[in-house]
Amino acid sequence: MQNFIFFTTPGCHLCELAEALLVAHLDPGIHQVDVLDIAYDDQLLERYGERIPLIKNEVTGAELGWPFDAGQLLDFIGH
Predict the structure, then answer these.
(1) pLDDT at position 7, please?
(2) Which residue among 8, 52, 58, 72 is the one 20 to 30 A from 38 at the CA level?
(3) What is the pLDDT of residue 24?
(4) What is the DSSP string of 56-74?
């Protein structure tokens, strides 16, 4: 199982686009994605506020920030 964190916040239209890519291309049997709303954490808001939507590999710490497309997402997750 590969574990990722998806940094987002409500009302973010780019986050909705990124989420649609995640839903379309990640397999729930292989990939676990925890959604983290940065709006309630000042440190996360400062660190990721300009970079969301962003997906982070929990094991390696690698980050893929917007803009990304399906090909870049698949490369990032190792497919």
Answers:
(1) 97
(2) 72
(3) 96
(4) EETTT--EEESS--HHHHH
CA distance 44 to 50: 10
One-letter amino acid for residue 69 of the chain: D
Please give the backbone phi and psi of residue 21, each rounded to the nearest 5 degrees, phi first. -65, -40
For the beta carbon of residue 45, count every other beta carbon within 10 angstroms: 16
Supply the pLDDT for residue 79.
73
E strands in 1-79: 2-8, 31-37, 54-57, 63-65
Over residues 29-73, the pLDDT tens digits come to: 999 999 999 999 999 999 999 899 999 999 999 999 999 999 999
Query: Over 13-40, what HEC string results?
Result: HHHHHHHHHHHHHCCCCCEEEEEEEHHH
- Residue 6 neighbours by CB distance under 10 Å: 19
| Residue 18: both structure tokens together | 């990124």
